Amino acid sequence: MSNKPLVLSRRRFLQAGAALGSAVLLPGMMDSAWAAGSDAPEQNTVKVGFIPLTDCASVVMASVKGFDKKYGISIVPSKEASWAAVRDKMVSGELDAAHVLYGLVYGLELGIAGKQQAMANLMTLNNNGQAISLSMELAKQGVTDGESLKKKVISQAPGSFTFAHTFPTGTHAMWLYFWLAQAGINPFTDVRTVVVPPPQMVMNMRIGNMQGFCVGEPWNQRAISNGIGFTAATSQSIWPDHPEKILGTRREWVEQNPNTARALVAAILDASRWIDASDDNRRETANVLAGRAYLNTKAEYLTGRMLGQYDNGMGKTWQDNHAMQFFRDGEVTFPWLSDGMWFLTQHRRWGLLDHDPDYLAVAKRINRIDIYQQAAAAVGNVSLPSSPMRTSTLMDGSTWNGGHPAAYAASFAIKREGE
């Protein structure tokens, strides 16, 4: 199906909804979305959780730059210590919404990331910008990439090497597993994997608790700057323009606060477009995020990779064509159904699911394209695709477009049976 952009204005909202298909729209939504006096936010204040990572940028800047006030709400960013904390506070209602791992929300929906909870993905917050870091101790032993890592791993007893990710069903686990498997390393039998909160990654590598990790920025750059590790792979080298963090919440909250949900997405859409508008805006964003209230680090750890300027810590530098992006004319932020379905295929591949779910039905339940459409109309001049599916090519040469998900999940040579 074509992904040709459709520029959405408020007046063309109905036609755009039809282009995406009635299956992804709420019954009656188009009749009342813009009824006079009916679209005021139900909540004036919206508490949004975030983990101190570069890709929380659009949530923070929506508040700092006042985009939230434009839509009648006040976003209160809430700094959290771990993804488990984000999960628990989101489920309990202590947080209205959160900057959250894509796979965490899908895992909650299916009861494999905690107690089952009906969830919602309101928009994608960013593409790209994560990495797999290996220790300088491995580098001293000649390990520089997946191929050399495999030689080192198979020369030792199974489980001799430890690698960390941030949450069992999250994005970083999936990038790490995919990369290891592509190198011929089974992440469940050849090595040991553990969960570590992002801000604790560098410290744990420093004291020798692990030989590698997959996490978001600025922690990969921090490992390089501290002389502890190097970047073995970026997540965009695994899947160029992959989905990463999303704006997640409970389905119940959306049903109770549909206008607030729309206003929240609209504010973050505006912030996303502003960040991507210029390098100067990205530098300003990096400076804001470096502050004590957010990442509490040096801006230099954020700025380079936000601008696509990469140094792997081993002498290689490059301008990355698929660095972290926040808007790209709405292509980044749209909640593609195929993106959510891909994470389900990897949950199945790695035994987190013991059967094939109804992939498309799950994605349609979670990804609230209806709310996103309304927000895009409120913002104006945001492009929408003609299909909620997109086509991507991953590092193993496989093409993913949302078609035949069960066969795709079963197609990998290295996988794990359900527990």
From TrEMBL:
Phylogenetic classification of the source organism: Bacteria, Pseudomonadati, Pseudomonadota, Gammaproteobacteria, Enterobacterales
The UniProt record lists the keyword Endoplasmic reticulum: no
Signal peptide: 1-35
Annotated keywords: Cell inner membrane, Cell membrane, Membrane, Signal, Transport
PANTHER family, A to Z: ALIPHATIC SULFONATES-BINDING PROTEIN-RELATED, NITRATE_NITRITE BINDING PROTEIN NRTA
Name listed for the protein in its UniProt record: CmpA/NrtA family ABC transporter substrate-binding protein
Organism: Buttiauxella selenatireducens
InterPro entries xrefs: NrtA/CpmA_ABC-bd_dom (IPR044527), TAT_signal (IPR006311)
Keyword Endoplasmic reticulum belongs to the record: no
SUPFAM superfamilies per record: Periplasmic binding protein-like II
Cellular localisation: Endomembrane system
Pfam families the record matches: NMT1_2
UniProt record similarity statement: Belongs to the CmpA/NrtA family.
